[in-house]
Amino acid sequence: MGFSLTDVISICDFSKKDIDFVLEKAAELEKTPKEKKSRILEGKIIASLFFEPSTRTRLSFETAIQSLGGKVIGFADPAVSSASKGETLSDSIRIISGYADIIVMRHFIEGSARRAAEVVKKPVINAGDGANQHPTQTLLDLYTIKKEFGKISGLKIGLLGDLKYGRTVHSLMYALAHYPNAEVFCISPESLRMPQEIIQANSGKLKIVETRDLQEFLPELDLLYATRIQKERFVDEFEYEQIKNIFVLGKQVLEKTKKGFRIMHPLPRVNEIKPELDSTEAALYFEQARNGLPVREALLSIMKDVEK
Amino acid sequence: MKETDIRLTPIKNGTVLDHLPVGTALKILEALQLSKPEKAVTIAINTESKRMGKKDLVFIEGKELTKSETEKIGLLAKGATINLIQNSEVKNKTTIELPEKAIGIIKCLNPKCISTIEGLETRFCIEQEPLRAKCFYCEKTMHEKEIANAIK
């Protein structure tokens, strides 16, 4: 098999070959007839453990499990799990692993997925561990780019908004670094710049430009990946109020962009993208969210054969 | 008599840490929990050094360092020399390299990390120049000053 990992924990664990294998599998599954697909996880039980609520990620995973013919056990509300009685994650996950063939887990504690993978013999898929990693989001982002542009290498990609705290853009930087000649424009207010250690780690592999000016580079971009500026990140509400509307994308953006320009967003959005853009060709964000399904199907179908 | 001979003579049996960057001697005492020692400890701070210009030294009577103690010193003072002294002679001299991994010797400073919350044995990947330690669990990276404060 062209996939080297026994768990899906962090995008930093993925080689280019691993990423490409998942993207190809996702494309293949999109073309696979429903009936054939529904036998892939036949007889398998998948634990869907959401120690932190996340309705969309959970529904996407559970839809993927069901469309592949698997059965789901688990919980969507941590209040019903033993964690609420004070049990450690390590103990909870050891017990649950006795019932399931694959574990899909979201947890607010950073590093929880890595710990879970360490203590159980079943493959673990990280559906988000606090502010740390959300690898299936990055894979669906890459899948969306590949599907839309036919390639990832050589594209000019703008990352916009909160680049300091946004885990999606951090992971995307590491993933894009696998693809030759990709150019990344980090566009943010001064206080929300991409962390220097991420810039340094990828500067040998990616051409990176840091700027506060969206307008200057807009005509060059193939793709703009917008992110939400999160209120909860600011200690000073006044600072948030000053920054929150600094990058609001509306139809006027399209006057400056080149043909084929697209906008992505991990969603939910607040006011970063005006609804007037939703019906334009540039709006790729809803398609991006839909692409979570084939990507998660691909990961589940790959992980069912994993032996740890 | 050579400069180093003068420095090494106070120890009959034990360890001399030489070529420590200035300012690291006290940190090392703290890291090795020798600030309230049962053993006799002598330190020299900001002394002349032909190789380094200035350096610190630590003399510990009656003690051989363990592997984890050596790794801790490696994180604080890469390139330092450990002299094992027996019967007032240097029996062994090694230069301390930076460990590639640090297992159980530094704590993760991220309060939201599973290793902190569940009290797990910590695991870090160490990178050189600049010195950085990346937590195996939460993937947060600590820099040189943070590492010095995180040594258990």
How large is the radius of gyration of chain B? 16 Å
- Strand count of chain B: 9
CATH class of the largest domain in chain A: Alpha Beta
The strand order across the widest sheet of chain A is 7-6-5-8-9
Helix content of chain A: 25-40%
Low-confidence stretches of chain A: none
Could you please describe the fold and organization of this structure?
The complex is a heterodimer of chains A (308) and B (152). Chain A is α/β, with parallel strands linked by helices and 308 residues long. Chain A folds into 2 domains: 11-134 and 292-303, 3-Layer(aba) Sandwich (Rossmann fold), CATH 3.40.50.1370; 137-290, Aspartate/ornithine carbamoyltransferase (Rossmann fold, 3-Layer(aba) Sandwich), CATH 3.40.50.1370. Helices cover 36% and strands 15% of the residues of chain A. In chain A, the strands form 2 sheets. A 5-stranded parallel sheet of chain A has the order 7-6-5-8-9. In chain A, strands 2-1-3-4 form a 4-stranded parallel sheet, sandwiched between helices. In chain A, strand 8 (223-226), helix 10 and strand 9 (262-264) form a beta-alpha-beta unit. In chain A, helix 1 (16-31) packs across helix 6 (135-149), helix 1 (16-31) crosses helix 12 (292-303) and helix 4 (89-96) packs across helix 5. The longest helix of chain A has 16 residues, at 16-31. Chain A is globular. The model of chain A has no long low-confidence stretch (mean pLDDT 94). By secondary structure, chain B is an alpha+beta fold. Chain B has 2 domains: 14-95, Alpha-Beta Plaits, CATH 3.30.70; 101-150, SH3 type barrels, CATH 2.30.30. Helices cover 22% and strands 35% of the residues of chain B. Chain B has 5 helices and 9 strands. In chain B, the strands form 2 sheets. Chain B has a 5-stranded antiparallel sheet with strand order 2-3-1-4-5, covered by helices on one side. Chain B starts with a helix and ends with a helix. The model of chain B has no long low-confidence stretch (mean pLDDT 90). At the A-B interface, helix 5 of A face helix 4 of B.
